[in-house]
Specification:
Elements: H1 2-10, H2 20-44, H3 57-77, H4 85-88, H5 92-96, H6 98-109, H7 111-136, E1 142-146, H8 150-154, E2 192-193, E3 196-197, E4 219-224, H9 229-232, H10 239-250, H11 255-265, H12 271-309, H13 315-344, H14 346-364, H15 366-384, H16 392-420, H17 428-446, H18 471-486, H19 488-509, E5 514-516, E6 522-524, H20 532-544, H21 548-558, H22 564-592, H23 596-606, H24 618-631, H25 640-650, H26 653-661, H27 664-674, H28 688-698, H29 700-719, H30 729-756, H31 769-790, H32 814-818, H33 820-831, H34 833-858, E7 863-866, H35 876-881, E8 885-888, H36 896-907, H37 912-921, H38 938-972, H39 975-986, H40 1000-1009, H41 1012-1031, H42 1038-1066, H43 1068-1072, H44 1075-1095, H45 1117-1120, H46 1124-1139, H47 1141-1162, H48 1185-1196, H49 1201-1208, H50 1223-1259
Antiparallel strand pairs: 1-4, 2-3, 5-6, 7-8
Helix pairs in contact: 1-2, 2-3, 6-12, 6-19, 7-10, 7-12, 7-46, 12-22, 12-50, 13-14, 14-16, 15-16, 16-17, 18-22, 18-34, 19-20, 19-22, 20-22, 22-38, 28-30, 29-30, 30-31, 33-47, 34-36, 34-38, 38-50, 40-42, 41-42, 42-44, 46-50, 47-48, 47-50
């Protein structure tokens, strides 16, 4: 009946008359549940006894739903419909499904901690929202208006303020002349008519209708308008909209557009505020929320596993039961069949049994398995080379190979069936192979060119057999398998969550997201709530946070601003709670599985080697060594050369004969052995030049000087930009400095090689991997100089080798060796390469599978016609006949490489919705797309996105495990020192309280300052101050202005009195020893400064409004918070900020290298009205180093980085001589490697640091390190 109630809710159609069948079923289910609860009440009693109805919380919830339905029926008669009641009716399913019931119970157990997390989350958002209101209230209203009445004077139809012809979605927000914003009215682009740029000015008299006049030049007055961007949804005009804006920024979706608005209207340096919001709000606070939910869920799940395990039924148990039944049936049938066969055909059975044994030996042999694996590899390779527009010969060849491989796999299946009989189906891999063979036979016999051929891509998954040859990969796959198995209830709960919010979305926004096109047709937005299918798809899109802000803008425009609560609930409950539970499951599985090191040790202990070293190698080296050993004692004080010569002189005649019998190669080998300690076989250990180089290399000034030149080299690399002309002095300085740095680093390498030796020796130059990296960079620099000299002023074939110039950007790698903290962080990162490589390999297999699958489904279908009126265009020929352009979409599946790029974009959760809709609209080869043509392809895209959640969380699990191991190794060396310090602290004698000799008045003041009453009063005062600051808004009345001004005086006075009382109570020195007291002094000083500047009317003289200094009062709340859980969270945040120093160095290091490389690669990409870009613009580009850093930070957050990739993949224009053709294959490598490093590795390293900090905060509650979150009412004595 609960499922029937869900079906009834799913039958709802917005804006349609209610069906009588649906109403009847609704009444029937309501009556059933009423009878059910009445029966339970009669049988068990309502309350009082231990087993009564109300003692069970699920029964109480059922009663609540019934009363809600009764209220709903009553209100419907009065014409009132409460939409939320339709969403809670299907929740009865939770109490009826044991797995869902257990999971929800665990989530309810962590609800108190979750509430504290959300309080901290809201606390951070509120602080930044108040700052935003103080800084930018009304800033986004600025528009460029006409300076004079041009419309009346020249009788032309113009907008009162400038806006783009296309729409107002991207408004032109200006900065007044007195402000320091980036965009002014003078920057308005010229007026265009039919693609022609107008340059004429209006005459004094009437205007000719055919004249092309630049009317935009008359929009020269920047003043506030009446409309904020994005249909009024984004602004800081009041605290409500500020909350919405900050929440969107924290979700990292569309945040750069908001930042650009304020950079245009207020100041270029506004990006500092938004970067702080994203770092503090998204990178730290949101990850703290994720870690807290994941860890507490794991702990609660472990505690409740035994209690809730009984009676639970899972899909896995059902499948295992079904498999066991099948095995029993196969075994019984096999016994009966064998008995009957023996009775009837005795001689035949006697001949068959040896043959079956031979077949079993064959299939168990390694040669057979290797042959099948080679066939699978060749079959996958044949599918991988298939692409759109391939020659007919290749098509015929691939069809033949498909037939051959199908027959081969059919023979394999037959041989295994003959050898194993019914036991063939006892192995899941064999069942999978059996299904693939049947599908392949069906495809061949049906002889139909349909989408069924795409199922051949499942052959790629047979690569799973390679796990037996890769033991390190086996552990990662076992973790993934266990994660998928344990997360089955979570997946069902997630599906139920999506269903409930889909029902609610249909009731709230059904048929309300539509707009009118330029041809007068009403078009429904692709992302809507008009049916159950599209509503569930939209909710799933919101969970991935892809373009969710566009949905929010439309919902707020068509309904009310309160629509934001629906989207916030989905993101907070779905993304931040349920999906973070999956992170906890992954981390728990990694901790439960044995580590790779333990596996290696166990495997090493299990294997018993026959011999330690090959004996054949010993005689080759022993004679020379014994000869030298016998000679060394006779001449211990001489050099090696002297020893060798004296040994040869005193050697017997037989040895001389042996020397004469040696070949030239053997003599050279012996000579080299004798001179191993010579540097480059030229400089002996006593050589003066080598001794001098050793002294230089060991001197501390040498390292400082080299580091100085490295830093200078980094500065010159940051100064590089394509806009510098060759004849400019700056270009000449940079070129000369590059030659100088190359020479300096070459000399450094030469000195180290002479001093240490090149290859041989324990401390030789090449014995250190860091020196090898330095040497490679020097060699590349010398090659760059050589190529530049050879190709200077010439157009020869060596000009293509100028790409070596890009390797200059790798010079900052030399900083790693000379920065201990950075070196430690890089070494820890390198330690995670091996397990991370296994995850990448697993991802590559899935990418390969979905890529081949996508090529089979969509090759040649991602084309569309570009033109004005496309209503009558159905195919490519009609498009070309209409003189339109037939264009391929940037992300497509025409070949495997393009498919992998598209899948990686989807994997990063940026731009996946557009790719999905392109596949949804694809009709066929050379066919114009039709909206929602094939809905079944949703299975392909949604399954890939679901799998991507698991694989992304695997990255988190690997980083958490690796970071934890590194932390454990680091702590082993510090435990002894910390133990000694603790002993010293415990042995300190107790001192007499410092306030013993206070006077009565000072003692009373001290008692007041250490009492909880003062803390409560200050807490109340600060909360009131925050509320008053939150009440400020744009165009506020005069009384609100006076209220905030007077309240500021009062609250500042209260804080001053508190500080003075504490100074009297504790004394100046003891007062300043406490960090919180120092913060109180800073808060008081900033409040006084804010009042002084406000009284002197000096706010306009500063680039930043001094009133934001008042916001520091909010930080005072953290001291008086008494909830231990919130204190643990705050301590976790503080420890995380302190621990991410090395991670920040890593971020800065990689950003520097990629920014310098991006300037070299993409600095000349042009974006204009005639050649528009989809991701790059004047705020995001690679024109110089600073802008490249800002652009890479945008890519790091995942905000429209797919649009930047589209711009870098564009074809070069015929008239663009500076465009490099190699960018089309360099750009995906560059951006994908940066996205992997930034989004999947370094960000997850922050998650690992937060998890470790949370663990430390729980273990070290009673510490006395002077941290601000300790339970201490008075300063340290």
């Amino acid at each position: 009946m609960s499922l029937l109630a869900c079906v009834i809710q799913g039958m709802y159609e917005p804006c349609a008359a209610s069906s009588s069948i649906r109403q009847a079923l609704d009444v029937f289910t309501f009556s059933y549940f009423v009878v059910e609860i009445l029966s339970k009440t009669v049988a068990l009693g309502l309350f009082g006894s231990s087993g009564s109805v109300l003692t069970n919380h699920w029964n109480t919830f059922d009663i609540f739903i019934i009363f809600a339905e009764i209220v709903d029926y009553i209100l419907i008669d009065f014409g009132v419909n409460i939409e939320i009641t339709h969403a809670i009716k299907p929740m009865r399913v939770i109490s009826r499904v044991p797995a869902l019931k257990d999971l929800v119970s665990v989530l309810l157990d962590i609800l108190p901690m979750l509430g504290n997390v959300l309080i901290l989350y809201a606390f951070v958002i509120h602080i930044f929202a108040v700052v935003g209101v103080q800084l930018w209230a009304g800033q986004l209203l600025n528009r460029c208006f006409l300076g004079e009445d041009i419309r009346t004077k020249y009788n032309v139809s113009l907008s009162p303020y400038f806006k783009y012809i296309s729409s107002e979605k991207v408004p032109f927000i200006c900065s007044p002349d007195a402000s320091s914003g980036v965009r002014h009215c003078i920057d308005i682009p010229p007026y265009r008519v039919n693609g022609t740029t107008c340059t004429l000015t209006a005459p004094n008299e009437s205007v000719d209708a055919n004249s092309c006049i630049n009317w935009n030049v008359y929009y020269n007055v920047c003043q506030p308008g009446n409309q904020n961007p994005n249909v009024g949804a984004i602004n800081f005009d009041n605290i409500g909209y500020a909350w919405i804006t900050i929440f969107q920024v924290v979700t990292l979706e569309g945040w750069t557009d908001i930042m650009h608005f304020f950079m245009d209207s207020y100041s270029f340096w506004s990006f500092v505020y938004f970067i702080l919001v994203t770092i503090m709000g998204s990178t730290i606070i949101m990850n703290v929320c994720a870690v807290v939910i994941a860890t507490h869920f794991s702990e609660t799940m472990e505690r409740d596993t035994v209690e809730h395990h009984a009676g639970s039924v899972s899909v896995k148990s059902l499948c295992s039961t079904f498999t066991s039944w099948l095995r029993r049936i196969f075994h019984i049938s096999r016994v009966h069949l064998s008995d009957s066969t023996v009775e009837r055909n005795g001689p035949l059975v006697q001949a068959w049994i040896p043959l079956q044994r031979k077949l079993k030996v064959i299939i168990d042999s390694s040669h057979f398995n290797r042959f099948i694996m080679a066939a699978i590899f060749l079959n996958v390779f044949a599918m991988a080379i298939e692409h759109h527009g391939q020659p007919e010969e290749l098509t015929a060849f691939l069809q033949t190979t498909n037939l051959v491989f199908t027959i081969l796999f059919l023979l394999e299946m037959i041989v295994k069936l003959l050898a194993l009989s019914w036991m063939y189906f006892a192995d899941q891999d064999n069942i999978f192979d059996f299904a693939i063979v049947i599908i392949s036979l069906w495809e061949i016999t049906s002889n139909a060119d349909s989408k069924l051929s795409a199922l051949r891509a499942f052959r790629v998954l047979r690569f799973g057999r390679l796990v037996h040859f890769l033991p390190y990969l086996r552990r990662q796959l076992l973790v993934l398998r266990r994660t998928v198995g344990k997360s089955a209830p979570l997946c069902w709960l997630m599906l139920f969550f999506i269903f409930i919010f889909s029902i609610l979305g249909m009731h709230l926004f059904g048929y309300k997201c539509s707009f009118e096109t330029e041809f007068g047709h009403v078009t429904v937005d692709r992302k809507n709530f008009d049916s159950l299918l599209w509503s569930m798809l939209t909710v799933f899109q919101i969970l991935t946070q892809e373009d969710w802000h566009l949905l929010l803008y439309n919902a707020m425009a068509f309904t009310s601003p309160w629509a934001v609560t629906y989207f916030v609930a989905i993101i907070v409950l779905g993304k931040h709670v349920l999906l973070n539970v999956l992170v906890g499951i992954v981390v728990e599985n990694y901790q439960a599985m044995p580590s790779e090191n333990s596996e290696q040790e166990s495997s090493a202990a299990a294997s018993v080697p026959g011999s330690s070293l090959p004996t054949s190698l010993v005689p080759r080296t022993d004679p020379s060594r014994t000869t030298q050993d016998s000679l060394c004692p006779h001449n211990p004080s001489r050099s090696d050369v002297t020893e060798l010569s004296s040994g040869e002189q005193t050697a017997p005649t037989d040895a001389n004969v042996d020397n004469r019998s040696l070949t030239l190669i053997q003599k050279v080998h012996r000579w080299c052995k004798a001179h191993e300690d010579w540097s480059l076989y030229v400089f002996s250990p006593q050589n003066r030049c080598r001794v001098f180089c050793q002294r230089v290399n060991s001197h501390s000034t040498f390292d400082i000087l080299v580091l100085f030149f490295i830093l200078l080299s980094c500065i010159t690399i940051a100064m590089e930009r394509p806009s510098i002309k060759p004849e400019h002095t700056e270009r000449q300085i940079l070129d000369v400095s590059s030659y100088i740095f190359t020479a300096v680093f070459s000399v450094e390498m030469l000195v180290k090689v002479i001093a240490l030796g090149f290859l041989f020796g324990k401390e030789s130059y090449c014995s250190s991997s860091w020196n090898i990296m330095d040497g490679i960079l020097v060699i590349f620099s010398l090659a760059d100089v050589f190529i530049e000299v050879v190709t200077s002023g010439k157009n020869n074939v060596l000009g293509i080798l100028k790409v070596f110039r890009l390797l200059r950007t790798l010079r900052p790698l030399r900083v790693i060796k000379r920065t201990p903290k950075l070196k430690l962080a890089v070494e820890a990162l390198i330690a995670s390469v091996k397990p991370m490589g296994n995850i990448v390999l697993i991802c590559s297999v899935f990418f390969f599978f979905f890529g081949i699958f996508g090529v089979q489904l969509f090759k040649g279908t991602f084309y569309h016609c570009v033109g004005q009126d496309l209503r009558n265009i159905t195919n490519r020929n009609e498009c070309i006949t209409a003189r339109y352009t037939w264009v391929r979409k940037e992300y497509n599946f025409d070949n495997l490489l393009q498919a992998l790029i598209s899948l990686f974009v989807m994997y990063s959760k940026d731009g996946w919705v557009s790719i999905m809709y392109n596949g949804l609209d694809a009709v066929g080869v050379d066919q114009q797309p039709v909206k929602n043509y094939n809905k079944w392809v949703l299975l392909y895209f949604i399954s890939f996105m679901i799998m991507s959640f698991f694989l992304l969380d695997m990255f988190i699990g690997v980083m958490v495990e690796t970071f934890h191991q590194c932390q454990q190794k680091q702590r082993q060396g510090d435990e002894e020192l910390e133990g000694e310090e603790l002993q010293e602290q415990h042995t300190e004698p107790e001192e007499i309280p410092y306030y013993t000799h206070y006077s009565p008045i000072r003692r009373d003041i001290h008692t007041l300052c250490t009492s909880k009453a003062l803390d409560l009063f200050i807490t109340f005062a600060i909360i009131a101050s925050v509320l008053v600051m939150a009440a400020e808004h744009h165009n506020q009345p005069e009384y609100v202005q006076r209220l905030t001004e007077y309240s500021q005086y009062v609250f500042t006075l209260i804080l001053i009195i508190e500080v003075l009382l504490k100074l009297v109570a504790f004394g100046v020195i003891r007062f300043l020893k406490n960090r919180w007291n120092l913060m109180d002094v800073i808060i008081v000083l900033t409040s006084i400064v804010s009042i002084v500047f406000g009284a002197m009317k000096m706010s306009q003289a500063f680039p930043i409004n001094p009133n934001i200094l008042r916001v520091f009062r909010v930080l005072r709340l953290t001291q008086v918070l008494k909830a231990n859980t919130i204190r643990v969270l705050l301590k976790t945040v503080i420890k995380t900020v302190l621990q991410v120093g090395n991670i920040s160095l890593l971020f800065m290091f990689f950003f520097f290298i990629f920014a310098a490389l991006g300037v070299e690669l993409f600095g000349k990409i042009e974006c204009s009205l005639d050649y528009p870009c989809k991701g790059l613009d004047r705020h995001a580009n690679f024109s110089h180093f600073g802008m490249a850093l800002l652009t890479l930070y945008k890519v790091c957050t995942g905000d429209n980085w797919s649009g930047i990739l589209k711009d870098t993949l564009r074809d070069c224009r015929p008239d663009d001589s500076e465009c490099s053709s190699y960018l089309q294959w360099v750009a995906p490598i560059y951006l994908s490697s940066f996205v992997i490093m930034a989004q999947f590795v370094l960000i997850n390293l922050v998650v690992a640091a937060i998890m470790q900090a949370l663990e430390d905060s729980k273990e070290n509650k009673p510490t006395n390190n002077g941290l601000p979150l300790e339970e201490e009412n008075l300063p340290a004595t």
